[in-house]
Design brief:
Layout: E1 2-11, E2 14-24, E3 29-33, H1 40-47, E4 55-60, E5 63-64, H2 72-76, E6 79-82, H3 94-104, H4 110-123, H5 139-152, E7 157-161, H6 169-184, E8 188-192, H7 196-202, E9 205-210, E10 213-218, H8 220-225, H9 230-237, E11 240-246, H10 253-266, H11 271-286, E12 294-300, E13 307-314, H12 330-338, E14 339-347, E15 350-357
Parallel strand pairs: 3-8, 3-9, 6-7, 7-8
Antiparallel strand pairs: 1-2, 1-4, 4-5, 9-10, 11-12, 12-13, 13-15, 14-15
Bound molecules: adenosine-5'-diphosphate (ADP) and magnesium ion.
Adenosine-5'-diphosphate binds near residues 14, 16, 38 and 41.
Length: about 350
């Protein structure tokens, strides 16, 4: 249904997509994952020509999208796109948002457009909200309306660009449920998402994007359980991290601790673990001899639930956990009591401490 050959996209000097080639069959559900800035949105935007590719070819049902003779508006109607930020018209009711395209672009009768729109609102669980305005809805409801609006144009392919990342965590699941429902009905979909569990459950294939390419692709089982390439492995195993580069004594320790705690909360870790993390963060800095060049990172692996703090600091080699170095130090004791393991190595001129935080 979609064939992409050697697609590239440059923004001036910046090469975002180097060489992307894929085939997507009708009914497939593709999740696109990868670090931010790797061109996932650009890839989707090239597919429906919101961006003009620099090179390569895209075929939709065999029709070359980039050919001058191609009827682009018609082809584009085959594709609906759902954005992170909903993009509803705030001066129109929910129903009017849904009927606008069919009335203006497809020449449908008002009655036909209304009937279809109401059926779609029912599908996304919002039949009651037909006459509400977008501002009267929650984020999750707005996104469901946006999905219904897309469907009103009867697309053959739906493109989702991080449809849940602007939502309050409590509203993510209602939107994912709607997408899952469309998947069951056989819709062809390409979904850029950070929701790994969702991607794993729903997709027929997963694309991991990095280095301007589809760096690795496979079934969810292959990508999530047995990734082959280095960057995919790192991404799958340690998806989430917070990083600090500390260069002087005046950095805001309390702000860092608060951020660490909310990071833990965001990833569903317990208050206890969040407390450990904030305390270890403080104590590991307390062990440092100088604050001129410290890299501190907190990472959480969604796959196995491990929480790690990594601290790298320049200077002469010294393991603070060695016997005889800081034996009676309260910081050492506090850290050891809250970690499963503490490892030290001297690497590239840096003291590197890897602290694995105790769970639950
Ligand atoms: P992702 O969705 O994977 O986070 P994007 O496709 O949004 O990545 O962006 C990839 C890179 O391209 C980023 O470095 C971004 O700053 C850059 N970029 C995206 N759109 C534009 C644009 N219109 N002009 C210039 N640079 C852009
Ligand atoms: Mg993006």
């Amino acid at each position: 249904m979609i064939t992409v050959r050697n697609l590239s996209k440059h923004f001036g000097e910046l090469v975002v997509l180097k060489d992307v080639s894929v085939d997507i069959e009708k009914g497939e559900i593709i999740s696109v994952i990868g670090p931010s800035g790797t061109g996932k949105s650009t890839f989707l935007r090239c597919l429906n020509l919101l961006e003009t590719p620099t090179g390569g070819q895209i075929f939709i049902d065999g029709v070359p999208l980039l050919d001058k003779t191609t009827n682009v508006p018609k082809l584009r109607q085959k594709m609906g796109m759902v954005f992170q930020s909903f993009n509803l018209f705030s001066h129109l009711t929910v129903l009017e948002n849904l009927t606008l395209g069919p009335l203006k672009l497809q020449g449908k009768s008002k009655e036909e457009a209304n009937t279809k729109a109401k059926a779609l609102l029912k599908l996304v669980g919002l039949a009651e909200k037909a006459h509400s305005f977008p501002d009267e809805l929650s984020g999750g409801q707005k996104q469901r309306v946006a999905i219904a609006r897309c469907m009103a144009m009867e697309p053959e392919i739906l493109l989702f660009d991080e449809p849940t990342s602007a939502l309050d965590p409590t509203m993510v699941s209602e939107v994912l449920a709607v997408i899952r429902r469309l998947a069951r009905e056989g819709m062809t979909m390409i979904i850029v998402t950070h929701e790994m569990e969702f991607a794993r459950n729903i997709s027929s294939r997963v694309f991991y994007m990095d280095e301007g390419l589809i760096y690795e692709e496979g079934t969810p089982k292959q990508i999530f359980e047995n990734p082959q390439k280095e960057k995919t492995k790192a991404f799958i195993n340690r998806i989430r991290s917070l990083r600090y580069h500390i260069t002087n004594e005046n950095f805001d320790l309390y702000a860092m601790q608060a951020e660490m705690e909310s990071f833990c909360e965001k990833h569903g870790l317990t208050k206890r673990v969040a407390g450990f993390v904030a305390l270890i963060g403080e104590e590991v800095l307390g062990l440092q001899k100088s604050y001129t060049d410290i890299n501190l990172s907190l990472s959480y692996s969604e796959k196995d639930g491990t929480v790690e703090i990594l601290c790298e600091s320049a200077g002469a080699p010294e393991n603070p956990f060695d016997e005889g170095v800081l034996d009676d130090d309260i910081g050492i004791k506090l850290i050891k009591g809250r970690c499963k393991s503490v490892d030290y190595e001297y690497k590239n001129g840096k003291n590197v401490l890897l602290l694995k935080v105790k769970g639950e």
